[in-house]
Amino acid sequence: MEPHRDGHQVATQNPQSTRNAEARWHWASEHLGYRFESRELLQRALTHRSAARDHNERLEFLGDAVLNFVIAARLYDRHGDSPEGDLSRFRTALVNGETLGEIARELGVAEHLIVGPGELRSRGGGASTNMLANSLEALLGAVYLDAGLDDAQRCVLRLLERRIEALPEASSLKDPKSRLQEWLQSRGLDLPRYAIESRTRSPHDPRFVVVCRVAERELEVSGQGSSRRGAEQEAARRMLAALNGE
Q1: Whole-model pTM?
Q2: Residue 189, class by beta-carbon neighbours within 10 Å (0-12 exposed, 13-18 middle, 19+ buried)?
Q3: Domain stops at, among 115, 138, 168
Q4: Residue 167's CB: how many other CB atoms inside 10 A?
Q5: I need a labelling partner for 95 at 20 to 30 A (CA). Which of 131, 137, 140, 221 fits?
Q6: Positions marked active-site
Q7: Residues 84 and 189 in one domain
Q8: In what order do the strands lie in the sheet with 207-214?
Q9: CB neighbours (10 Å) of residue 112?
Q10: Continuous segment of H or E residues that includes residue 92
Q11: What is the pLDDT of residues 84-93, one digit of tens each?
Q12: Does residue 2 surpass a pLDDT of 50?
């Protein structure tokens, strides 16, 4: 193992060794609640593209579809009177990189990832939130291929049911840009303006700084994020706080 600066370790040992494969299988059985028939599928789900040609990106694609379907069906049943817009907000609050990365950390996914040494060095020795989220989706795709939809559904709900039950009112899940726009329009004010102030082009850790301006209140704040959209949302959140005197 190599330590990550945030404490999350990534596997660097020989992924083919019987001992490592056995450890991954027992870990998945305990933490995912599913016992893989195909240990090769499990290994592929945990293999980053930097480590081998037989990596997890196709499984990630499949797992993303399984995850979205299972969550959509669960929300449809649980919130029988909610309109489509509210159901979409609920799903977005559950199926996103931050939430999936958090779940992956709770499960200890990072300790079982198979990542190339060059990728590790470029990331300071550890796995990013995005890498963890993608690997979790790949694991769900692997469960689906190994056993079918029923087992994959049980696995998804085991991981996310607590968060489904804890969802707040849909209105509070509107993204900051939407809430800022509604706040300004309800007071007859012009919409905010966003502009990129700076960006770094590192392929592994891009950073954007976006400025949000509300001219009629003579307010200007900035937000940072790994994407332009993320930085705009953070700037909007800070603008709302400023407008409300927080």
Answers
A1: 0.72
A2: middle
A3: 168
A4: 17
A5: 221
A6: 64, 137
A7: no
A8: 193-200, 207-214, 219-225
A9: 24
A10: helix 84-94
A11: 989 998 998 9
A12: no
pLDDT digits (tens, 9 = 90+) for 105-159: 999 999 999 988 777 666 555 678 889 999 999 999 999 999 999 999 999 999 9
Query: Which one, of 97, 100, 95, 104, lies nearest residue 4 by Cα?
Result: 104
Q: Give the mean model confidence (pLDDT) for residues 217-221.
A: 94
Radius of gyration of the chain (CA): 21
Whole-number pLDDT of residue 242: 93
Mean pLDDT across the stretch 164-179? 86
Cβ proximity of 51 and 57 under 8 Å: no
The residue among 168, 185, 213 that closes a domain is 168
Same domain, 188 and 138: no
Q: Pull the structure tokens for residue 123.
A: 């990331």
Of all helices (H) and strands (E), which one includes residue 120? helix 117-122
Q: Is residue 11 part of a domain?
A: no
Range of the structural domain that residue 237 is part of: 176-243
pLDDT higher than 80, residue 18: no
Please give the single-letter amino acid code of residue 138. A
